[in-house]
From TrEMBL:
It is found in: Mitochondrion outer membrane. The keyword Phosphoprotein does not apply. Keywords: Ion transport, Membrane, Mitochondrion, Mitochondrion outer membrane, Porin, Protein transport, Transmembrane, Transmembrane beta strand, Transport. Belongs to the Tom40 family. Its main location: mitochondrion. It comes from the Eukaryota. Channel-forming protein essential for import of protein precursors into mitochondria. It is a multi-pass membrane protein. One of its GO terms (molecular function) is porin activity. One of its GO terms (biological process) is protein import into mitochondrial matrix. This is Translocase of outer membrane 40 kDa subunit. GO terms for cellular component: mitochondrial outer membrane; pore complex.
Amino acid sequence: MSEQKIAQPLADISKMSVPTLPSTAPELPKQNGFWSSNPVFSYLNDVYTNISQHRQSLGLTNPGTVENLTKEVNRDVFLNQHFFQGLRADLNKSFSFDPAFQTSHAFSIGGDLPPYAFSALYARENMFAQGNIDNQFSVSGKVNYGWDEHNVSKVTLQIAHGQPTMCQLEQDYNANDFSINFKTLNPLYLSGAFTGVAIGSLLQSLTKKFAVGVEATFSRQNSSLPPDSAISYFARYNAGDWIATAQVQGQGALVGTFWRKVSENVQAGLETQIAAGMRPVSTPFGAQLEPVVEGITTLGAKYEYRTAVFRGQVDTTGKTSVFLEKKIMPMLSVMFAGEIDHFKQSSKVGAGLQVETAGNEQIFLMQNGMVDANGNPIPGAAM
């Protein structure tokens, strides 16, 4: 609604300077609560307020979670989560995008994967659910639910053939400049004692690029046994086009990673692990333990082309691995994986196909980049 202009009077007595007399009414006493009247808590409250104002003035951002501390190296560049052996065929079918619903059939021969596995995925803006079952009726599932923009609850369940049942409960809290995570694995409270594994972690941004974190682990396999505990420390520096991380793990291991975006389509990653331990040795006085330090360094690279993605890595144990995914048709991709162990003189080879189908014509057009989520034609797309 447009504002109407009103003519101002020649003199507005409400804005004229008028001398004021001192008030004779007594001033009301301030309502001091316990937190402000107690000198100790008042001091702590002032310190907390000053720290909060200083953190806001720095313009810090959320550093991510401890779980994703090295995702640029271990998930994006390295092929550890992509490598397979034998023959493999995946058939994926999408039924909708909002909410997202997709099913997958996986077939495998001659590798470590089960001969057949079925999985289903359902995702909305604040919810993600995925379930898997194979030919041996091993079941696994994961559900993530976001209560708001800061809190996410996660439940993971696995019932595998020949393996113990696993249940993991997890809670994430992502603030403006820090992240807190609590998780517990197979928690039980029997005979007055906790059994299972409990992990708590904190990752805090100190500057716009630098963040530090700590993680505490508590585990007890049996109520009659003493518990084990460990503390790990983390650091992450994100310069934009390169990221460096360092970990001091509670088990006595040092891990360092370095990720670099070489160009628009090329990424490189480096990881070094150094672990100290004990190993038995034979002596004239019998078997004894001696300290030993072991280390491994892995170097990898990722090349992204218009219709293909290539990953390769080499480590100090003598292994050279490659993984190639090539899209030969809009709905068909071929995969190749290979590994050579020079020290053990062994090799592994894998080949596979991946087929993506649509549940209806609109999803087919969306998968090929012809229409958007609302069904509107995309300018420049071949129809």
